[in-house]
Amino acid sequence: MAQEPLAKSYDPAGIEDKWYEFWLQKGYFHANEHSNDSPFTIVIPPPNITGSLHVGHAFNNTIQDIIIRWKRMDGFNTLWLPGTDHAGIATQYVVERMLAEEGLDRKELGREEFISRVWQWRKESGHTIINQLMKLGSSCDWERERFTMDEGLSAAVRKVFVQLYREGLVYRGDYIINSCPRCLTVLSELEVDYQEVDGHLYYIKYPLVESEESLVIATTRPETMLGDTAVAVNPHDERYQQVTGRKVLLPVAEREIPVIADPYVDIAFGTGALKITPAHDPNDFMVGMNHDLPRVKAIGEDGKMTSEAGKYAGLDRFDCRSRLLQELEDKGYLEKTEDYRHKVGHCYRCSSVVEPLLSKQWFVSMQTLAEPAVKAVEEGRIKLVPSMWEATYYEWMNNVRDWCISRQLWWGHRIPAWYCDDCGEITVSEKDPTSCEYCSSGKITQDEDVLDTWFSSGLWPFTTLGWPEKTNDLKTFYPTSVLVTGFDILFFWVARMIFFGLKVMGEVPFQHVYVHGLIRDAEGQKMSKTRGNIIDPLETMSSFGTDAFRFTLAAFAAQGRDIKLSEERIEGYRKFCNKIWNAARFVLMNAEGFDPQLSPLQNISPGEMELADRWILSRLNGTIQEVRAALEEYKFNDTANILYHFIWHEYCDWYIELVKDRLQQDGHQRHVAQTVLMHVLRESLELLHPIMPFITEELWRQIPGTGESIMITAYPKGYREWMDAGAERDMKLLQDVTTAVRNIRGEFNVPPSRSVDAIVKCEREEPLELLTVYSAYVSRLAGIGKLETGKQSVAPRLSASAVVGGLEVFVPLEG
Asked: First CA to last CA across the chain, in angstroms?
């Protein structure tokens, strides 16, 4: 039954919280693990607990909610599984900064107390973004919310680590890692932001031992020369054939190092002679391994020079660079300096310059895991949408390096490895051991490091469903159906979920991956606080309403493109909300005497309907098929624009205007008009609901004969019997003539209150008969006083004309 009459104007603030609370209370978001309905599962990309809702989150979660609401209405047993990520580096940074304001340091507190403070912070502030996702209308199954550090996921992380270790796929070894001296932790290659900077290329003389000659070396990082253990030349470089095997004196350090030949050296770069620093460059590390070179670590994890740097020990690396260059120049070793633009790695979190360092770390051996992950996409078991991202995926996976998974943090999953003081062996165990598994000594110490955050989030699709326990959730909802994510974490997260899912579960973690672009400002610039061009989702939803914001995001979500967003565009779709509201209000105000139980649309035959009725029903059914096809192909912009055009331009601008006269009459034609109006309104709202959940629920509940909630009604499938190509063809002709007259009126500034005459000439009989029968349609919508049709009609004096579909339209303008 209809509720109280609609307010005169649309006020989103009055309806959004009301309906979201209603949906929660009814449990509509909760999936049933015992249901026989086909499952459809999405796992949320877990936002960091340090975060608050930004426009990228809003876009990503709007897309997910559109999919899940559509599938729920379509009869699937839908699960949208929410949760948050512990965000090791970011969270530790936030809590350390909070402690600093209290005059405290984490090292003073100790590990246990520091972790306790992090959990306290998480309890107080870590759910901020979840509450904000609810404001967006996200219909997640909040009863199943997970956290990457909760008890179940933590146990699963340990189990996978131990399994991979015992299979030799996790190992500990020396390797060049990317170290952030600010965050004091290792970064994976993906966490390094390479930025082009203006630097210098320094040409430094390395004197040949027992010779007056020197080899000149070009480098961008002269401070690393204190860790040099060789100079390398290409074996095919004729310039250096006579010096290979000899030694040079390392300037300032006064240490002799060999000249070696290695094909890695690029003859064309610099002078063709390359300094080799195995402890500070990944390529030099490999060269050093091939030639059994020592590894001298001259820079430490804190970015300061080590004791190996001699008199420069303790200096910051960049201070060392300045002083070292001065000494090299003073002693005649610096030949020249050139300006040089090159890429330098920066920490993705704090933007500090990353330092490549030799370090003993934990790694995942990637080759074995990458191969089946590549095949899963090649064979179509996982489909990337749009497919353009497949080439990028293959490029990375086929050239993947071993993944460094240890981080020098306290917050996170601590590595389950214990070192024995007596025998030196490592015990790796799911449970905390009390003794060494090799010699039974009780003198064992756990590794201080934690695992990379992406290790635990890589297990997300199955650990959140209860693995390693054989839960009903896991049985029902794995593998998941689709993953919605930005391209920027295709390798951080998506690739890792794929190889972990295949390795641990033996199945792909999801069938489709919808990869969307980034949100940019109206000029295409990346949003940032520095530029001052950020759009705050919460403020935007408060100003324009959540539905208008969501529709804007959907309307511009073209595959393979970034979104250019502005408040003007959101304001435009706020007007669309008003249009829908006013249309529904008009229909409901003219519903007197309408009884949906006594007059279903199926009881009215096409012969009882006017052309406009048959046309709008045919267009509705065409729209349903177009919308369904667009949703299936993840073309959310097409979905939104199809609905916008149908509701605003066809239903509101044409059909409602055409039936107004019939609504003022008594009798059967009024009843037919009411029935068609109500049917099209109801199904339009149902089609629109996944994008605009709040306004559609509010209006749908007002329509006589609807049920408990639009959320759980069936998504429209259409009625093939209402498809009517003839009605659409005839209506188009009438629309074209009407539009032609309207355009003439507009061009010559004829006021709306002034009627005009029109003459239509056509040599064919059928169009003229149609215009005669439905002259009232054209006259009403084009403001025509007298409509004349004929085969021999001529253009009056002082008239404007237009040609549409083989018809000539004349509008006399005299007077």
From this structure: 54
| Placement of tokens 């006269």 in the chain | 661
**From its phi and psi, is residue 570 left (phi > 0), alpha (psi between -120 and 50) or beta?**
alpha
Cα Rg for the chain, rounded, in angstroms? 35
d(CA 243, CA 216): 13
Mean pLDDT of the chain: 93
Alpha helices (H) in 102-252, listed in sequence order: 106-109, 111-125, 128-135, 151-166
For residue 362, the cross-strand partners are 172
All residues at 6 or more sequence positions from 729 whose CB lies less than 8 Å from its CB, including other chains: none
Q: Measured in whole angstroms, how far is the alpha carbon of residue 230 from the centre of its chain?
A: 46
- What CA–CA distance (Å, rounded) separates 10 from 694? 11
Contacts 24+ apart (CB under 8 A), 69-74: 69/139, 69/689, 69/690, 69/693, 69/711, 70/631, 70/690, 70/715, 71/40, 71/481, 72/28, 72/139, 72/711, 72/712, 73/686, 73/689, 73/690, 73/711, 73/712, 73/713, 73/714, 73/715, 74/714, 74/715
Task: Please state the length of the chain.
Answer: 815
DSSP secondary-structure letter at 7?
P
Backbone angles phi, psi at 757, to 5 degrees: -95, 160
Written as six digits, the tokens of 215 are 């080899």
Q: Residues 679, 683, 686, 692: is their CA dihedral positive or negative?
A: negative
What's the per-residue H, E or C state across 234-292? Answer: CCCCHHHCCCCCCEEEECCCCEEEEEEECCCCCCCCCCCEEEECCCCCHHHHHHHHHHC
The single-letter DSSP state of residue 648 is I
Helix (H) or strand (E) holding 457: helix 453-457
**Residue 1 pLDDT:** 41
Q: Is 427 within 8 Å of 436 (Cβ atoms)?
A: yes
pLDDT of 2 above 50: no
CA distance 357 to 244: 27
Could you tell me which residues are beta bridge partners of residue 192? 347
How far is the C-alpha of 618 from the C-alpha of 719, rounded, in Å? 9
pLDDT at 813 over 50: yes
Dist. CA 176–CA 358, nearest whole Å: 4
Dist. CA 389–CA 515, nearest whole Å: 8
H or E element in which residue 574 lies: helix 567-589
Among candidates 160, 137, 157, which has minimal Cα distance to 147? Answer: 157
232 closest CA partner among 279, 287, 281: 287
- From residue 334, alpha-carbon distances to 160, 230, 308, 323 in Å are 52, 18, 22, 13
Over residues 410-429, the pLDDT tens digits come to: 999 999 999 999 999 999 99
Alpha-carbon gap, residue 190 to 387, rounded angstroms: 22
3-state secondary structure of 476: helix
Write out the E strands in 314-354: 334-347
Query: Left, alpha or beta for 467 (phi > 0: left; psi -120 to 50: alpha)?
Result: beta
Q: Alpha carbon 148 to chain centroid distance?
A: 20
The sign of the dihedral angle between the CA atoms of 261, 263, 264, 265 is: positive
Residue 479, preceding peptide bond in cis (omega within 30° of 0):
yes
Contacts of residue 398, defined as CB under 8 A and 6 or more positions apart, other chains included, come to 370, 374
pLDDT tens per residue across span 594-637? 877 766 788 888 889 999 999 999 999 999 999 999 999 999 99
Residue 122, CA atoms < 13 Å, CB-side half-sphere: 22
Compute the distance between CA of residue 296 and CA of residue 358 in angstroms, rounded to an integer: 9
Extract the runs of DSSP E, i.e. beta strands, from 499-645: 510-516, 519-520, 563-564
pTM, to two decimals: 0.86
Tell me the C-alpha to C-alpha distance, in Å, between residue 541 and each of 132, 136, 137, 545, 743. Answer: 11, 8, 11, 5, 37
